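Database export, one record per block. Field names are fixed; values are copied verbatim from the stored entry.
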Amino acid sequence: MKSKNSQDLPLSAIILALFLGVFSSLAIATGLIVIDAPAWGTYLFSALGGVMTASFIWTERSLVSQIKEKEFMLGIEVTRLQEFQDCLYSHSMACLVRFDAGTLIIDRASPGFIKMLRMPMESELRGQNLEVLLGVNTLMLESVVQLIKQGEEVLGKEAKLEIMSADGFSTNAVISGQYTPEDHIVEAAFFVDPVNNAERIADLGAVQKDLERFRKGMFRRETRILELKEEVNEVRRNAGLPARYEKV
């Protein structure tokens, strides 16, 4: 969506541009009169100076307004992404977990992830070590995390983990996810081999929908956030200001 701020500047910005334009014109005219410049030159240069000053102020206010608009839109997208994550991590039966890419300490986990570990649903996993909870080989888990950090598709033999639940039940799962460099965080989804029982089959449809929302929703939101950051940087470059956001 293109910004309309250059056409919809607040009245205060318009008044400021006109005031400074007139003030500049009068100042130039006064200076030229003092040095006894020709009348035509006084009118011409004072008019040009006033127009240039007003134009500069108009352009500067327009760019500032555009930056504010882009920052506002970016804030909305970040909020929507947070709400989207909150909904999934609070209610989804898909096996979702958010953890530190270095320490493997869990930040958030969905009800589905807790259920996969066969732990009480009221369990609090925040602050616990993912490797310990999964009961997996350290090197194996770290290699999967490394693939996610590199942005590669997490498929194949090394991405399939044998998880040991809290009550000693073993199951196979494939882990997929994405890495956020700014926060050094991994958002991961575990795909567990289906078990042939009525309870799991009943959950399967909802889980598949949540996983699809997780993949597509996160991608769309992250892509839009990156686009808005680049738009902010572009407007700032046009204003002669340094970029605010680094490219990832």
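Remark 1: The chain has a mean pLDDT of 73.
Remark 2: The two ends are 23 Å apart (CA to CA).
End of record.
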